[in-house]
Every structure is written in C-alpha cells, then in structure tokens.
Specification:
Blueprint lengths: L1 E12 L2 E12 L3 E5 L6 H8 L7 E6 L2 E2 L5 H6 L2 E4 L11 H6 L9 H11 L16 H13 L5 E5 L7 H16 L3 E6 L2 H6 L3 E6 L2 E7 H4 L3 H9 L3
Parallel strand pairs: 3-8, 3-9, 6-7, 7-8
Antiparallel strand pairs: 1-2, 1-4, 4-5, 9-10
Bound molecules: adenosine-5'-triphosphate (ATP) and magnesium ion.
Length: 236
C-alpha cells in the first residue's frame, strides 16, 4: 500500500503562493528525494505534510487516511517523524537527553529505543554524555535524526540533512538514512546536494518555483542533463 500520497497540494505564505498543485507518493520502504534550488518550495511541502503549514487545497494521505487537517502531534503519533532544517537540538542538553525528550508518553522500552539509535550511529555512543552544542555538525545531525527515530516512525521526513556538513559527513548521513529504509522506515528528504541525494534515494522529484518539474528513478535522473539545468536555473 502507498504510505504517503500527496495530491494537488497548494500552499501560500501570506499572499505568496509557494506550492502549485503538487502531487507525489512515497511507497513503503522507499527513500524519496526532493530536489530544487533555494526557494523552490521543498521545506513548504515537508512542513505541509507535518501539519506545520496549512495547505489551501489538495490532500495529504497516510496509508489512505486524510491527515492534512491534523495537528503536528497527531501526525507524529500516526507514524511520521520530522527532522527540521537546522536540526533544532537543545544545545545545553546531552545527546542522551536530546533523545529522551522524544520518548512517547507511556513508552516502556525507551532504553531499547535509545540503544537502537546508537546502533545506527555507533560513533555517537562515546559522545552520549556530552552537551549536544559542543558536538560537530555531523554529530548533531545524527542526534537530530536519532531523536526523530525514537518514535519508531513508518516515515521519516528530513529537511536538508547536508546543511552545514562536509561532503564526507553528508555522505555518511545520507547512507545512514538509506539504511533506515532497508529496515522498514521510509524516508522523504529535501536536499540541495544533487549527486549525493540521487545516489542515496530510489526516486526523486525535482522542484521548480513550487511546481514539480521532473520526477523519476534516481538512477535515471542522475544522467539527465535537464535535471542539472533545472537545478542550477534558480541559482544563476
Ligand atoms: N515563513 C514564510 N513567510 C513568507 N514566505 C515564505 C516563508 N517560508 C517560505 N517562504 C517563501 O516560499 C517559497 C518557498 O520556500 P521554501 O522554504 O519552501 O523553499 P526551499 O525549497 O525549502 O528553499 P531552501 O532550499 O532555500 O531551503 C519561497 O519563495 C520563500 O521565500
Ligand atoms: Mg528549505
């Protein structure tokens, strides 16, 4: 069954229209990338899926259930988790404490869930008692992704995982995201780094000015000169 289905979604910021009849799907077990230049509408779409931006029309369905009028916490409790742009960690709290804040109410296996996060990111284990604000950008991104995984989501939505990271750290982060899909968590990620995003995803959608300009298998899009052109179009 299709996990996430967005149909003809439109959204405004004040009078500015940011999304124009956007439709896309994420199937169970897929990693899907949203590509596009600055201001193309990627974050607006992700925030609309999470209930943080109210769409003006269109629908967002999770396993067939309409969620576009749901509040953010209701969407999280239905199995969708969000890593916002810029990570938004608590810098004075330790890595462990940042993970602990995401433990759902009534959860009986918090320790087990934390252990699972550290098994995804083994290099974080030795830093678990350090203040998150003292860690590197890559380590902070791992905590942000780990925090989102504490709710055991069916779909992880990640906005710009590469922001502020070196190419090597970006590569490691995207590889870890790909690994989540292999274990049953589908991933929808917005990303500026075209080549890394295409190498780490099954399918991709290319955004241009709030429209989906192109979509297809990532392995096909990587060789399509139009993708690069559309991508650079917004930046020149
Ligand atoms: N809070 C806001 N208020 C007004 N306009 C906004 C707001 N957020 C985004 N916009 C506008 O909506 C459009 C889409 O922005 P959005 O942040 O979704 O793009 P993006 O693809 O995520 O860009 P980036 O790659 O820079 O993160 C842009 O024209 C932007 O200026
Ligand atoms: Mg953005």
């Amino acid at each position: 069954m299709t996990l996430l289905s967005v149909d003809s979604l439109s959204a405004y910021h004040g009078n500015v229209r940011a999304l124009w009849d956007v439709s896309l799907k994420v199937e169970e077990g897929e990693t899907v990338a949203l590509l596009g230049a600055n201001g193309a509408g990627k974050s607006t779409l992700l925030r609309s899926i999470m209930g943080l931006v109210r769409p003006s029309s269109g629908s967002v369905k999770l396993r067939g259930e309409e969620i576009s009028s749901r509040r953010p916490h209701e969407i999280v409790s239905r199995g969708v988790s969000f890593v916002p742009e810029g990570r938004r960690l608590f810098p004075a709290m330790t890595a462990d404490e940042n993970l602990a804040v995401a433990v759902p109410r009534g959860c009986r296996d918090a320790e087990q869930r934390m252990a699972e996060v550290y098994s995804i990111f083994p290099s974080l284990t030795e830093k678990r008692s350090l203040q998150a604000g003292t860690l590197s950008g890559g380590e902070q991104q791992m905590i942000a992704i780990g925090r989102a995984m504490m709710t055991k989501p069916a779909l992880l939505v990640v906005d710009e995982p590469s922001l502020g990271l070196s190419p090597a750290a970006t590569g490691r982060t995207l590889k870890a995201l790909r690994g989540l899909a292999d274990e049953g968590t589908s991933v929808l990620l917005a990303e500026q780094n075209l080549d890394l995003a295409l190498s780490a995803s099954d399918r991709a959608y290319v955004f241009e000015n709030g429209h989906i300009a192109m979509s297809g298998a990532s392995a096909t899009l990587v060789n399509d000169p139009h993708v690069r052109g559309a991508y650079l179009g917004g930046e020149v």
